[in-house]
Specification:
The complex is a heterodimer. By secondary structure, chain A is mainly α. Chain A contains 6 helices and no strands. Chain A is elongated, with a radius of gyration of 25 Å. The chains are: A mainly alpha, B mainly alpha. At the A-B interface, helix 2 and helix 3 of A face helix 1 and helix 9 of B.
Chain lengths: ~130, ~200
């Protein structure tokens, strides 16, 4: 009983908050080290010796549903109206239109939409090879 | 990547610099949005040549400063009244709040500067600075210095990571949690020491 009372006296809200923060700090510190190792392993933190070697553009595997057609066009050096013609896009917002927003109208899953975009880029590149990175 | 972040990224790609301003402004004013990650992404887009890096830096800085200042001015003018109105009367008259005000007055520089890197805490510090009636010149100096350092740090990270920025999202999120908990811990311990110092004197 005495021990519990003593424990209750020590356990102030401030101490609880400090303990919680220390736990968060230790856990996030551990995760941070782990994430750093992952980044180093996949080469994100290694800098190429020559700045020109850096991949300035994204690859087709990096395409995400939140990206706009305009962004994709610029990344892959595609003509502005390429997707408009290929997908029959009539939305006046094109090319400033996110991929998922366009495909949502046809209830197409974002992953399928991205796959469709990838296929169209590959098809275009096989017709007239375009550099994907500067 | 969270739905919120994906929506913010789409918003940035559609409305470009205007969106960047809105996100940084709202995050600095009151809403805990993932503004740091968005800033990293915008800087990576600048690396890709889609945005201009000086424009990303300038607009993010402007958005942050504008959001902070609005929070500061509103709280300076209506702060205590507003808090009383929404039911915080007890807190405002408590000795702990009085101590917090005293602490803010004596640790202005570190509190404002460090809280710029803790996007979840920054708006509360702006409100507190306004409530205690801090001089605007003093507030502005530390606020601009802090925001410039914060924006420079995160935009440089984005520019450095370039097209591989998405690989660093988890690292940055964890770094944000780490920095916030470290900052809070620092302030809690510092305020404890401050209280003890006051009691002794």
């Amino acid at each position: 009983m005495k021990f519990i009372q003593k424990f209750k006296n020590i356990l102030t809200p401030r101490l609880l908050v400090i303990s919680f923060l220390i736990v968060v700090l230790v856990v996030s510190g551990m995760v941070l080290v782990k994430e750093y190792r992952v980044l180093y392993k996949i080469g994100v933190l290694k800098r190429p010796q020559h700045p020109r070697e850096l991949p300035e553009k994204i690859t087709i595997n990096d395409i995400k549903p939140w990206m706009t057609f305009d962004y994709i066009n610029k990344q892959f050096n595609l003509p502005d109206g390429y997707f408009k013609d290929a997908l029959n896009i009539s939305d006046s917002a094109y090319p400033n239109l996110p991929i998922d927003k366009f495909f949502k109208r046809d209830r197409i899953d974002p992953r399928t939409a991205v796959e469709k975009i990838r296929r169209l880029i590959l098809a275009r590149n096989s017709e007239s090879p375009q550099p994907t990175s500067r | 990547m969270t739905i919120v972040l994906e929506s913010l990224l789409a918003f940035i790609l559609v409305y470009k610099y205007a969106a960047l301003f809105v996100i940084t402004f709202v995050a600095a004013f009151f809403l805990p949005l993932p503004a740091s990650t968005t800033l990293v992404a915008a800087s990576a887009f600048a690396f890709q040549g889609y945005f201009s890096f000086p424009a990303v830096f300038g607009i993010a800085l402007l958005g942050n400063i504008a959001g902070d200042n609005l929070g500061f001015f509103i709280s300076k003018k209506y702060g205590e009244e507003l808090l009383r109105l929404i039911g915080f009367k007890k807190i405002l008259t408590s000795p702990n709040f009085h101590m917090l005000k005293e602490y803010t007055k004596t640790n202005t520089a570190s509190l404002i500067f460090v809280s710029r890197f803790m996007t979840e805490i920054g708006p509360s510090v702006n409100v507190l600075s306004g409530i205690i009636g801090m001089s605007y010149r003093k507030y502005l100096f530390y606020e601009i210095t802090g925001e410039a350092s914060y924006v420079l740090l995160y935009s440089s990270i984005g520019y450095y990571l370039g097209s591989r920025w998405e690989n660093g999202v988890n690292f940055l999120t964890t770094a944000g949690i780490f920095m916030t908990s470290l900052g809070l811990l620092f302030f809690l311990i510092q305020s404890r020491l401050f209280k003890r110092g006051r009691n002794l004197s």
